[in-house]
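For consistency, the fold was encoded as tokens, which produced the following:
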Amino acid sequence: MITHDLRTWKSAEHLPREQQLAWKIAEVAADPVAVEPAVTEMIVNRIIDNAAVAAASLARRPVASARAQALCHPFQRGATVFGMTDATRVSPEWAAWANGTAVRELDFHDTFLAADYSHPGDNIPPILAVAQHCVRSGRDLIRGIATGYEIQVNLVRGICLHEHKIDHIAHLGPSAAAGIGTALNLPAQTIYQAVQQALHVTTTTRQSRKGEISSWKAYAPAFAGKMAIEAVDRVMRGEGAPSPAWEGEDGFIAWLLSGPEARYQVPLPGQGEAKRAILDTYTKEHSAEYQSQALIDLARRLGPQIGDLSQVDGIVIHTSHHTHHVIGTGANDPQKLDPKASRETLDHSIMYIFAVALEDGGWHHERSYAPQRAQRPETVALWHKITTVEDPEWTRRYHARDPREKAFGGRVAVTLRDGRVIEDELALADAHPDGARPFVRENYVQKFLTLSDGIIATAEQHRFLDAVQGLPDLPAGRLGELNFTVSPARLGEAAPHGIFDWK
């Protein structure tokens, strides 16, 4: 890996194109290096993972609304939409919008945490949609997805967005644009402009993940994917982008990140170096914010030790800065303690999540968020006894580069009414690659079969799994097989109409 130093350059200074981050990203995307077998294997796993969580979300209103919008834009060749037949094709940017929303709605797919947060699987819908429309092969798609993950992960390693209240989709627009460039075998010059354009139009604030969190949390990554496709389309027609996007005097670093004096270091593969970043990412066993995964597993372990939960006097979760300030009491969001809060808000409340996991001995992607579940008096009572504190050691381990040190969990101290204190800790979720039960292909397949049970017919489940597991050998024009069809009764309904289907 090569570490690229990044800073603001004044307009009077000359920053050669070859030294700009966007060009370095474009060079990685345009490098025809082979994809390693382990990376191909994981890409297949993550396509299965995305399909699993998308199937489970198809009938939810935000997903139905995004799908309804997409279906107003039929296009041939076009790209497929989850739940619809292969014959139903829409313009690729709208397929990315619908499918990206379905993948993101339940907050249940893969994650990478470093200087910032990310869900790298959000790269898959836009890259797949363009590959379908442009009649690419399975191997083209694999190369594109490998790039998308590589760029996303390394931007997340090098640049913290959340400290400036910038949403992490600002890393997704550029990575998706780069992945599309790889899948289409575009030259570095074109990818360079597309990456900059995508950054420019996908920088938004973190209010989408703060306070009364709305359905936009699911839409935001889909929006970034949609914008990435449009950015690539524009530059393929000869248009340019604001440049240099990161380093410019009025650019991203100077005004949206840490300012003109700031320095960032972004690692990227060198010429001919394999793109392996996807192997550093991890998926979720539980449908909740990733920083709650290990704590859910810890709650499953602690519940039997505590016994009668009505005897709990208080619970303190000692954890990292990120967990405390984003999903803990350090966020200072009263909504995180509100029994009438939205699913999206409860998903970002470790106090609620830990209480329910203690009571139920596990987590369910629907039942655990049901309004009647959140409003149980005994749950509310336990929930409101839980607080979080930042522990410098857990923060250090959160940011550790040594995988043996890396940790996303915490230590929990439960004080009972009789004065006894029960303590336990867990660094990594059981499903993490270094956890107690790392996810392998069998787990991804089982997750898909479980989440799509009763939604996708059995024969269609197995047809999809056969197609995706044969991805490296899928010829050009056959990527539509990576879609799945469900009966209309399994699709939710959006509002009666919007602008696109005005009646």
Summary: The beta strands are 2-6, 74-79, 264-268, 312-319, 386-390, 410-416, 421-426. The two ends are 55 Å apart (CA to CA). The chain has 19 helices and seven strands.
